[in-house]
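S.,

Sequence below, as promised.
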Amino acid sequence: AEKDLKANSSDENLKKNLSKAYTKRAVALTDARQYASAIGDYRKALKYDETNEEAKTWIATFTGIYKGMNREVPAEGEEPEPLPFEKKS
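The prediction came back faster than expected:
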């Protein structure tokens, strides 16, 4: 999706597709309890589709959790890279 968008950066459908891809990975990261990395992908999803309600909701949820634990939310662009996923057999 990123390659397609680089080739045609003004295509709104490609932007939405990339937003969906980042959202799907963020959901997988959330399931894997890689919350800080998930925040980064949800933010990237919003970058490409400002109407992505799922991304907005999860960012707000994680922000609330971090603040409730008296921890700072990772700054945009400073989120850790996702850890490798292990395939389940």
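Residues 71 and 86 are 28 Å apart (CA to CA).

Coffee later?
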